[in-house]
């Protein structure tokens, strides 16, 4: 079979041709190590193995992926890149600028990626017009995950405004529950900060501060208010929040120890892995104040530039499988995210998945879809890390909200 023909194979056809591709293998670096994440990555491994492509797993624990990026850098520097690596936003573009990534143009043209991948994702999946990565999903960060039994016990309706949200958390705390399940890690603090910036200032302010890095916006009264809201949230976490992994925070909501978690929809993967159903044991809603907007991040498999022909064929088989409509459904049902293609019907998704797909489409059409700062889609890693430092220092009480806004201006200026 020629390589050209192999490029045409969908994941299903691939499954029938084990004898021709049995020697192929992909080595994939990722940070999907929680229960839900591991189940999701398992669907990719199974799909590839069914098609005769072996899977060499390279998981690097650490939500948000900072540790994975450090390991990846070491591997590439040593001249031994993996086949593919899970990557976010601006980081993909950085690797492309270094000339480290391969070219998926032929496969993309053959399968019509340009017509089905949203423009906001193509901005990261292509470099100078060339396809360099395969997007597997769209996540977003402005979600609240809630325990429905606890809401009922406390007599709570779904909060629509920031004040309602605070009142609901107060009710939970007064009743002896943890109001907000949170893990004190920089990337988690930053994840909730995405929604505080959007909730206080709306789309124009998010664009000016997080994307355009406008100093006036970064140091504005609205930014002070965003930090004040972080202080309010800080008052609702439990005493043991420091350093807790995000999935353990999700477990607090799953177990009924905590009312809410503000987290990207990878959290849904934990609820589903625990056997819970959206709209039944748990529910989801956009962070009050951010309705109508979406702060997104997309996991993509950046494909490294490989010289070995067999490795390259395996890489293309993986990219092809990742982009297939069937696989995008299978994977995203488990991962908690929504497909990275616009042509996938939502009927197989649960209530949260359907809400995610609808709000994403609305935000994309209405100009209210923005890259998540916390997950590398609003600004480059140097700026993102500078923001992380200020947000976390403030969250841990190193300085007040007004000082935090000033520190943000300075940190961003130095990082650029
Ligand atoms: C990734 C998700 C992942 C989450 C927690 C995010 O940056 O996009 O896929 O589940 O980090 O590890």
Estimate the helix proportion, in percent: 40-55%
The class by helix and strand makeup works out as alpha/beta
How many β-strand runs?
A: 14
Lateral arrangement of strands in the main beta sheet: 2-1-3-13-6
Gross morphology: globular
Determine Rg (CA atoms, Å): 21 Å
How far apart the termini lie comes to: 50 Å
Structure write-up:
It contains 21 helices and 14 strands. The termini are far apart. A five-stranded mixed beta sheet has the order 2-1-3-13-6, with helices on both faces. Strands 9-10-8-11 form a four-stranded mixed beta sheet, sandwiched between helices. Strands 7-12-14 form a three-stranded mixed beta sheet. The N terminus is likely disordered. Helix 14 packs across helix 21 and helix 20 runs antiparallel to helix 21. The protein is an alpha/beta fold and 416 residues long. Strand 4 and strand 5 form a beta hairpin. The longest helix has 26 residues. Helix content is 53%, strand content 13%. Bound molecules: beta-D-glucopyranose (BGC). Beta-D-glucopyranose binds next to loops.
Question: Quick gist of this model?
Answer:
This protein has about 425 residues and is α/β, with parallel strands linked by helices. Helix content is about 55%, strand content about 15%.
